[in-house]
Write a structure and sequence with these properties.
This protein is mostly helical and about 120 residues long. It has one domain (about 1-115). Helix content is about 90%, strand content about 0%. The protein has four helices and no strands. The chain is flat, with a radius of gyration of 17 Å.
Amino acid sequence: MFYMYNIHRTTFLRSDIMYILLIFFCAVTYWFRSNAKAVFGLDLSPFEWWLYTSLLTTYASLNAWWYMRNTYDIWKASLIWQVILFSVEVSLNVYFFGANPRMMISLTLVFLGICIGLT
């Protein structure tokens, strides 16, 4: 009986990680789409961006959202989603554009909000 519970819990954690990785993938794609011209000099039309990224990010984000929504309540799902998006955006901005003290303060406040929100 105890052994069966551990198998279920491991499968549960694996599926959580998979959907978190989908959200992470979408966040990186959104950031790249927003900053590709400034960082990489890649200038595509809106139709080309839609053609190359829209189907994949829409599918991934909807699957991840509905999994999080069904697994957690609406507030925790929204909190997890926004934290991942914000963390990826700030991390990539710091890496490519340099650190900004206001970004670090806002990141600290977001993580404090996470601790409060998930309790």
